[in-house]
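Run: sequence + LCLJCK34 -> complex structure.
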Amino acid sequence: MKREGIKKHLALYFIAGSQDCPKNIEEILIEAIEGGITLFQFREKGKGSLHTSDEIEQLAVRLLQICRTSNIPFIVNDDVELALKIGADGIHVGQDDAKAGDIITRINGMILGVSVHSAEEAKRALADGADYIGVGPVFPTSSKEDAKEARGTAVIEEIKQAGIDIPMVGIGGITAENAKSVVMAGADGVSVISSISRSEHPAAAARALKKVING
Ligand SMILES: Cc1ncc(COP(=O)(O)OP(=O)(O)O)c(N)n1
Ligand SMILES: Cc1nc(C(=O)O)sc1CCOP(=O)(O)O
Ligand SMILES: [Mg+2]
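>> structure
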């Protein structure tokens, strides 16, 4: 599944690690799938996350199995070795991670996502072979300690206006209340952590987001 095929999976892209979840992450993922998420990223990172690589790998494998039973592609954040080891469907890297251009040959057809904060970075991601980009933070977020300043939908609009043709999701502080503005700006979907993971009812939260996106 390359660029065109990925678009439909970007509609409601759920990201989580155990640190984002007030209850068991496996239960939350199952409920999020019930609610209609279209892609999942395992991001075990930051305050409260698991420490040992064994624990992280075991959790990744359990979450991958849940995604496989529902045909939801499973992306690993940052860790190329883990993605390759467990046979993930893709890897997401940021500007301070392994360089997309360096890993493209190693990941052998896996989905490659890249975080960008400008049209310039989007252009480079496209040239490096990224299948999609994550653009953020759109709104202020509490889920990423080192997040940059929120820029609203300006960067998404800039990328569209520059004619850079790559599937993209907005990320950062996205809720059912503001998701429509992200899609209206030109994103193919939204990527969320807390709107689903910290909801008392993750399935209902995912359903509400989906309804807004499908509009
Ligand atoms: C879909 C998506 N977009 C952006 C990011 C952020 O990646 P990065 O800037 O590398 O920050 P960390 O998530 O690694 O803290 C993402 N993970 N997913
Ligand atoms: C993982 C991540 N990356 C961002 C970026 O701007 O690149 S913002 C972010 C956190 C998104 O979490 P929430 O939906 O809870 O705001
Ligand atoms: Mg990263």
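>> summary
Residues 77-78, 93-94, 97 surround magnesium ion (ligand 3) (CB under 6 Å). The chain has one domain: 3-214.
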